[in-house]
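Hi, here's the filled form for the chain we discussed.

Project: internal
Contact: R.S.
Residues: 126
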Amino acid sequence: MNIPSELKYTKDHEWIKIDGDTATIGITDFAQSELGDIVYVDVDTVDDEVEKDDVFGSVEAVKTVSDLFMPLTGEVTEFNEALEDEPELVNKDPYGDGWMIKVAISDASQIEELLDAEAYKNLIEG
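And the returned structure, exactly as it came back:
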């Protein structure tokens, strides 16, 4: 299971890469493996301010649809358009080409509440 140490994580299996006041967000390797083959990523919150823990979109796999939860309050500035034609990028490269959104962070103090790689590993290994 791939859990890059430079990223932050949530209990809902999103990963967050912080770059200044911008966060790139996707779902973890664990999440995509649990979901199975992803057939559609739906994000209709671009240009919206989304509160921490609110739904920013959903991901549809062959067997199920899962909501995507915002790890930090902020404005969704970008959606990974490549996922419209190739949603399977989330399966192939969840931490790279399979990223989902970019967010302008509103409250940097929320970063402290995110899990580090070790804490996330403990969560999924129980």
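Let me know if anything looks off before we file it.
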